[in-house]
């Protein structure tokens, strides 16, 4: 590294410590789920506007971006924070209660943006760089409340069910060359972990339609939608032996509607399901098999089925850009010491994120900070050390942007040149998402002995 960016950024970041910590607490105390994060949005918008930034809002949904421009030609680096909290099902000490909380630490990410923007706009820093830094606060990373989002989609309020894809479709990532984000992880000591990436996910809903009939009096005339769903789920379980072993394939479901009343044969049954795999093409292939099984379950009973493939999280591949890993690693070592930076490029997480969807069109990285405690996505989750979970990630990301954009953006240009994205453009990526998104009926019964199936 030509400059010691870490030390300079660290020193300048001190000024923003209090405001970042205040934001972290405020947003923690005002958790809202995806596409409804207005408290965090309004709080941050006011802070950034007071700092002099021209915030461009999404409008009918929370989230915004703004650019910090060096005035010199060069690459654009997006630094991202997620706004949303999630629903945690009951596990509290005070009895079972479902609550909305920041059980994934996203409040830390967006709070860090305050310091990052402040430091990146500093004249001494900006004058040494080229290109632009785009600060983006995105909604709706967690795949939750899908029925509500489908409704929003039908009403034309959104086009996609995840925040980053929606933001890509609205132009928030147009012109961005590299994307950076830091997610909190547990840890009692300052440090950083760089992983291979995450799993891909297809989130789906499957609805079976039978016929309503009195269960006691006339079951012989009925088409039982619950048995159709059960038969499909048995077929999926038997299919598991065909899943590639090293791909971490998962297919897990819940039944959110099992029928109407116990006196009636179930006529409508709703299954919600996620399919997961490490590789995008494997994921698509497994999803086809699973859809075939869902259709087969319906045919066995002469029922109808509607499969809704609602949202795709493409696997995040942090290790696909060795040079970007290197930048994170070197800045991390500068800040935390080599012994506190873990390069875990063999290991992939079973979770998923729509940061992978950004990575499908440009180089991206999402290392993990320390500072959280308890279990992620549970009531026990907490931010134990704001210094590690907010302040350090702010320094890290700002210093990384400096390294990428110094010396005519040489490092950034090399990373962009060497990266092989899954899709050559945001438009091509969105076309693929449109093709996967489906909500249609799959069986056409043509006469007594035949049916046309497609899945
Ligand atoms: Zn999460
Ligand atoms: Zn998260």
For this entry, give a set of tags.
single chain, 455 residues, alpha/beta, Aminopeptidase, Alpha-Beta Plaits, 2 domains, six-stranded mixed sheet, five-stranded mixed sheet, 14 helices, elongated, binds zinc ion
Explained architecture:
The protein is built from 14 helices and 20 strands. It is an alpha/beta fold. Helix content is 37%, strand content 24%. It is elongated, with a radius of gyration of 24 Å. Strand 19 and strand 20 form a beta hairpin. A six-stranded mixed sheet has the order 1-2-6-3-7-15, sandwiched between helices. Strands 8, 9, 14, 16 and 17 form a five-stranded mixed sheet that branches. Residues 104, 142, 377 line the site of one zinc ion.
Over all CA atoms, what is the radius of gyration? 24 Å
Main sheet properties: 6 strands, mixed
Assigned CATH architecture of the largest domain? 3-Layer(aba) Sandwich
Give the total of domains. Answer: 2
Walk me through the topology.
Blueprint (H helix, E strand, L loop, with lengths): L4 H9 L3 H13 L8 H13 L5 E2 L6 E6 L6 E7 L3 E3 L10 E3 L4 H15 L2 H4 L5 E7 L7 H9 L8 H7 L8 E3 L2 E4 L5 E6 L2 E10 L15 H15 L10 E8 L10 E10 L2 H22 L2 E10 L8 H15 L4 E8 L6 H5 L4 E2 L2 E6 L8 E2 L2 H20 L4 H9 L7 H11 L1 E4 L1 E5 L2 E4 L2
Parallel strand pairs: 3-6, 3-7, 7-15, 8-16, 9-14
Antiparallel strand pairs: 1-2, 2-6, 4-5, 9-16, 10-12, 10-13, 11-12, 13-18, 16-17, 19-20
Helix pairs in contact: 1-12, 2-4, 2-12, 3-4, 4-12, 8-9, 10-12
The structure holds zinc ion (2 copies).
């Amino acid at each position: 590294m030509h400059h010691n960016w870490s030390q300079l950024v660290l020193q300048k970041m001190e000024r923003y410590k209090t405001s970042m910590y205040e934001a972290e607490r405020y947003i923690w105390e005002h958790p809202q789920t995806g596409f409804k994060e207005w408290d965090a949005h309004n709080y941050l918008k006011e802070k950034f506007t007071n700092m002099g930034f021209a915030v461009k809002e999404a409008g009918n949904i929370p989230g915004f971006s703004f650019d910090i421009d060096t005035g010199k030609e060069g690459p654009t680096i997006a630094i991202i924070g997620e706004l949303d909290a999630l629903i945690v099902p009951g596990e509290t000490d005070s009895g079972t209660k479902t609550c909305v909380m920041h059980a994934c630490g996203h409040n830390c990410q967006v709070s860090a943006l305050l310091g990052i923007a402040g430091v990146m706009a500093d004249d001494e820093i900006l004058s040494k760089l080229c290109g632009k830094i785009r600060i983006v606060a995105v909604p709706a990373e967690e795949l939750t409340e899908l029925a509500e989002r489908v409704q929003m989609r039908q009403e034309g309020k959104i086009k996609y069910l995840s925040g980053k894809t929606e933001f890509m479709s609205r132009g928030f990532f147009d012109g961005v060359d590299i994307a950076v984000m830091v997610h909190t992880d547990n840890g009692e000591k300052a440090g950083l972990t760089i992983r291979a990436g995450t799993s891909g996910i297809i989130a789906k809903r499957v609805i079976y339609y039978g016929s309503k009939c009195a269960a006691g009096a006339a079951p012989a005339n009925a088409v039982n939608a619950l048995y159709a769903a059960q038969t499909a789920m048995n077929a999926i379980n038997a299919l598991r032996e065909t899943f590639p072993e090293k791909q971490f394939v998962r297919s897990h479901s819940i039944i959110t509607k099992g029928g109407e009343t116990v006196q009636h044969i179930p006529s409508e049954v709703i299954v919600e399901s996620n399919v997961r795999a490490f590789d995008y093409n494997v994921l698509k292939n497994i999803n086809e098999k699973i859809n075939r099984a869902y259709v087969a379950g319906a045919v066995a009973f002469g029922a109808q089925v509607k499969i809704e493939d609602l949202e795709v999280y493409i696997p995040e591949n942090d290790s696909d850009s060795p040079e970007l890993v290197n930048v994170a690693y070197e800045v991390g070592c500068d800040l935390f010491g080599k012994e506190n930076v873990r390069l875990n490029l063999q290991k992939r997480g079973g979770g998923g994120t729509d940061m992978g969807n950004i990575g499908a069109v440009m180089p991206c990285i999402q290392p993990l900070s320390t500072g959280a405690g308890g279990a992620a996505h549970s009531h026990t989750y907490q931010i134990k050390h704001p210094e590690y979970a907010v302040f350090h990630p702010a320094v890290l990301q700002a210093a990384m942007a400096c390294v990428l954009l110094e010396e005519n953006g040489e490092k950034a240009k090399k990373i962009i040149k060497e990266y092989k994205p899954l899709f050559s453009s945001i438009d091509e990526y969105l076309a693929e998402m449109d093709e996967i998104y489906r909500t249609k009926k799959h069986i056409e019964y043509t006469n007594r002995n035949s049916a046309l199936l497609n899945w």
